[in-house]
Design goal:
By secondary structure, the protein is of the alpha+beta class. It has 28 helices and 34 strands. Strands 1, 25, 26, 27, 28 and 29 form a 6-stranded mixed β-sheet that branches.
């Protein structure tokens, strides 16, 4: 027999070294964790949101303790009982001899092993449970929805707030029972209570009792699970095209689930009875019954019904349940017909048979009457102009603008206009090497400065310039939207922390304003705002030195008793931290409110437990071709309920975070307001000026338009067949295959009396390029959130965005210019393709075309404007000229004039004539005077043309074919007379 191999052991010195290393690792981990928690607390204390900090911390600690103690305690108690009631004498067998070595090893250390098992399992359970702190808070503070689900007649709050918590408890119950069962079995086996390979009795009485109780508890929990499964049917995905309980779920699974509850209860009783009966045949038979029942009536029977009853006529069988899904999904996404969404049959009277274009005369009349939409047509694309803003308004290398600018509206001189806006932020990435020392990076270059705005429908210099008209800009800030406090200490580009503040009398060190002149000297400043955490004491300095891993907090003279540290400076991160129960929109935007630059953000309450509502992935639903380009992608979490319940603001100077309740009827928000009283301010606290800058949020709109592509259909059979489904078009101006983003425009919606700021999107027919609908959501305070859906005639193939873009690129003039622009020296850049409703006549597409040099420091300049209406293309240096090409000379000037008045007289006192047809091939096309003043003969011909057009329109409406023929003859005669008079005046027809 070979001698045993000696087990290598560590020397005492090695053990001491390893022990010291382990202690240091634990110490550093604990200190780092406590430091992070303390720095977090200081931030919450500075922002006055300590209630969030303490409530979350206490709730997490409570769940951690309860779950940890319950799990660790139950397992430890079960193992202890199994050990305590171990048999004193064990039959001799090879199995028991092999186990004896383990018993001898465990006996001296059983207390340590038992404690270690309990602690490890308790910690694991505690860490798992504490992440569900919001589930507990919403359960505890549940608020009724005031509406019930269609199957059980229970208030929706049960499914949204209570059902998830019951499922959480049930899951932990199963885990605890399963872990205790495993611990008991292993203990009984090791110490002889369970003998698998030993002849004779396999279980001792103590082992039988303990295992019977645990198995009975497990099966009892299964009965509870079956009962909850009944309510879980409202989340079923058995239906092919909808979510929620289907025909099979209601008629072939609901009752079996109830039956299984009683079968499982009987099985549990059988296991408990085994404590006294001392025979496993009864519980075994009950368990077999449960398994057979669950397979036959819980799986096989529903599958048979689904395959042989439902599928052959699914559209009819599922119709009532599809109606439920449509109704509940609309409720969940705030798209209820009549309340939240208005459907309008659009352009029905201006179109003829399939394939015909929009009636040009009706369109021309609407265009002439339009005094709101066309004058405000946005030519500046905020997604393109960041480099242009940087080139013209950066001022210093450490300033910068975000990759995506923003659109907002301001009333200047009594006129409401939309502007492309941005703030000149501190861009740490722009610092040069010598500017990147710790002193410079964190104490000198601490903030941005200034608000920049340019009217969205203007450029400077026309085709020779193409730059934005910066009506607000420069340093110091000048213009028509000038904030009283224009320093930007909190912004989207600021990533580093800053140390600000100094004792009175100390020379300012923060770079602030250019002094002027040619030497580029700076005027410095010392921060005096309320933001930041005081770092004056040695303890605070040590805390921040550990947190930021920077010794200069202890060594630098820039850190003094008056110093403050600014951190968590991104507006979106600040709101997420202050309100962890919200999902925050990915695009904050700045506005000047009460003389201060203020970041405005949208907060969403969401849930994944709304019954019958279609579930989506938030990140995927809110993604488009620009996601990640100056905007933040939302987390890809499952949800099926969303509300824009909170409007948040972050002061750009002192970082103050304010949350306002904006949807006063949202039960989810009201539930969290119970959990965190006083954190969200009532809607009445929103000032009128602030409310005037609220925008309907993009991410919510993208989610809703995706839902509308399917759930605009009322008929359940049509919904099932997908015959009237829509689709979000791909962005034709980008190289990536992604959804077209929605666009903010200032326009007059059909049926409205004036223009409103709104968020819009075109929708195509499913897997077709043709346009089917146009969706807009109002941002006006009086109509905020009202969604209008213009439904286009299904028998007329209106051009969709991709088709319009293709028509632009196929146009001879545009294609020639693109070839010229796309060269070694320059590149063409397509702007956003806007869709604008023109009264009741139809949709006008407008797209700016930019050109950017390939040289260093180049930036895009607006060079051309492309328009498309009813298939007619206009392409020119200005919007007015492009409209002239589509509708006739002079129309562009009338349409782009905000008051709708005809053109004013020129310098010679001659008045530009009212447009009239000139093209004999298309007598409905208005004339182009070529810039020649009108003569009496031309004016008389114009009057005859207008009279003939009115006669033609009257005859068309009356169905008078003879009258139409006569009107066309009169129209042709008048056109010939106009052309003759025009030639006599020295002008060439058509320009």
């Amino acid at each position: 027999m070979r001698p045993p191999v000696p087990v290598p052991t560590l020397s005492r010195r090695a053990k001491l070294v390893l022990g010291a290393v382990a202690v240091l690792l634990v110490l550093f981990t604990v200190i780092g964790t406590l430091t992070n928690v303390y720095v977090d607390y200081l931030w919450f204390d500075e922002t006055n949101y300590t209630q969030i900090f303490w409530t979350e911390l206490q709730t997490r600690a409570l769940l951690f303790a309860v779950a940890g103690v319950a799990t660790g305690g139950a397992v430890a108690a079960s193992i202890h009982l199994a050990y305590r009631f171990r048999p004193t004498f064990r039959p001799m067998s090879l199995e028991q001899q092999n186990l004896e070595r383990y018993r001898q090893s465990l006996e001296p250390r059983r207390g340590l092993v038992l404690t270690a098992v309990a602690v490890v399992l308790g910690l694991f359970a505690g860490f798992t449970a504490q992440s569900s702190w919001q589930t507990w808070l919403t359960f505890r503070n549940s608020t009724d929805f005031g509406s019930t689900d269609p199957q059980f007649g229970i208030d929706i709050s049960f499914f949204v707030f209570e059902y998830p918590f019951y499922r959480l408890l049930l899951g932990f119950g199963f885990a605890i029972v399963l872990l205790t069962l495993i611990g008991s079995v292993l203990t009984h086996y090791v110490f002889g209570g369970l003998r698998l390979q030993t002849p004779g009795q396999k279980l001792t009485a103590a082992a039988r009792v303990q295992l019977s109780v645990l198995l009975g508890l497990f099966v009892a929990l299964k009965a509870v699970a079956y009962w909850l499964d009944r309510y879980g049917l409202v989340y079923s995905d058995r239906g092919d095209v909808f979510t929620g309980a289907s025909y099979t779920d209601v008629n072939a699974l609901l009752v079996p689930k109830t039956i299984l509850v009683f079968v499982a209860a009987i099985c549990a009783i059988a296991f408990f009875a085994n404590i006294f009966v001392r025979n496993f045949l009864l519980p075994a038979a009950a368990l077999v019954l449960l398994l057979l029942s669950s397979v036959v009536i819980g799986v096989a029977y529903p599958a048979i019904v689904q395959q042989f009853v439902v599928r052959p006529s699914a559209n009819e069988k599922e119709a009532p349940y599809i109606e439920r899904a449509i109704e509940m999904t609309r409720q969940a996404y705030n798209l209820v017909d009549g309340d939240d969404v208005e459907y309008v049959n659009y352009a029905q009277e201006t179109t003829g048979e399939a394939g015909e274009e929009v009636d040009p005369q009706v369109a021309l009349a609407e265009l002439r009457n339009d005094t709101e939409t066309i004058p405000n047509a946005r030519l500046l694309d905020p997604n393109v102009l960041s480099e242009t803003f940087t080139a013209r308004q950066q001022i210093r290398n450490w300033y910068g603008f975000p990759e995506k600018l923003d659109v907002d509206r301001y009333a200047v001189d009594g006129e409401l206009r939309d502007y492309v806006v941005a703030v000149r932020e501190l861009d740490s990435a722009g610092l040069s090497e010598n500017q990147s020392t710790w002193i410079n990076r964190h104490t000198v270059y601490t903030h941005g400065h200034g608000f920049v705005a340019a009217p969205a429908n203007e450029v400077v210099g026309g085709s020779d310039g193409g730059e934005p008209n910066f009506t607000t800009g420069d340093l110091p800030v000048r213009g028509d939207i000038v904030p009283e406090q224009s320093r930007i200490y909190y912004g989207e580009l600021i990533e580093d922390y800053s140390v600000v503040g100094a004792p009175e009398g100390t020379a300012p060190r923060e770079s602030d304003l250019p002094e002027g002149g040619s030497d580029d000297r700076q005027i410095n400043n010392t921060y005096d705002g309320e933001g930041g955490v005081s770092v004056g004491s040695f303890f605070r300095q040590l805390t921040f030195a550990i947190n930021f891993r920077e010794r200069n907090f202890l060594l630098s003279s820039a850190v003094n008793e008056e110093s403050k540290v600014l951190y968590v400076r991104d507006p979106r991160e600040r709101v997420e931290k202050a309100a962890p129960f919200l999902e925050v929109d990915g695009d904050p935007y700045p506005a000047v409110i009460d003389g201060r630059v203020t970041w405005i953000l949208d907060g969403y309450t969401t849930s994944d437990s709304y019954p019958y509502a279609e579930q989506m992935q938030l990140g995927e639903a809110a993604a488009d071709s620009l996601t990640g380009t100056g905007t933040t992608a939302l987390p890809n979490e499952t949800f099926n309920y969303i509300r824009n319940s909170v409007k948040a603001t972050v002061d750009a100077y002192d970082g103050t975070v304010t949350l306002y309740e904006y949807d006063t009827e949202d039960p989810v928000l009201r539930t969290f307001m119970k959990a965190f009283p006083g954190v969200v301010q009532p809607k009445s606290e929103v000032s009128q000026e602030l409310e005037s800058h609220f925008r309907y949020p993009e991410d919510l709109f993208k989610v809703q338009r995706d839902i509308l592509t399917r759930y605009h259909v009322d008929d359940p059979i049509a919904f099932y067949e997908g015959s009237d489904r829509w689709q979000v078009p791909t962005d034709p101006t980008q190289d990536v295959e992604a959804d077209q983003p929605p666009y903010y425009i200032l326009a007059q919606r059909p049926g409205d009396d004036e223009a409103t700021f709104q968020l819009t999107s075109a929708l195509n027919a499913f897997q077709r390029p043709n346009l089917s609908a146009f969706v807009s959501a109002s941002s006006a305070p009086d109509t905020y959130g009202d969604i209008q859906v213009l439904q286009l005639p299904g028998n007329t193939p209106f051009l969709g965005p991709t088709q319009v873009q293709n028509s632009f690129e196929a146009n001879d003039d545009i294609r020639r210019d693109l070839t010229l622009f796309d060269s070694d020296d320059s590149n063409s850049v397509f702007g956003n393709l806007l869709t604008l409703p023109i009264g009741d006549a139809g949709l006008l597409y407008v797209e700016p075309l930019y050109v950017e040099s390939t040289g260093e420091g180049s930036f895009p300049l607006l060079q051309r404007v492309m328009v498309n209406f009813g298939g007619r293309i206009g392409y020119a240096s200005t919007l007015a000229e492009a409209l002239d090409q589509v509708f006739g000379a002079g129309i562009g000037e009338i349409a782009t004039d905000s008051d709708g008045a005809p053109p004013t007289p020129d310098d010679d006192g001659d008045e530009t004539p009212t447009p009239a047809p000139t093209d004999p091939a298309d007598p409905t096309t208005p004339p182009d005077t070529g810039g020649t003043p009108a003569t009496p003969g031309m004016e008389a011909a114009v009057q005859d043309i207008n009279a003939a057009l009115e006669a033609l329109a009257t005859a068309q409406q009356a169905g008078d074919f003879a009258g139409q023929g006569q009107a066309l003859e009169d129209l042709q005669t008048a056109v010939d007379a106009y052309q003759a008079a025009q030639q006599a005046a020295g002008a060439t027809p058509g320009g």
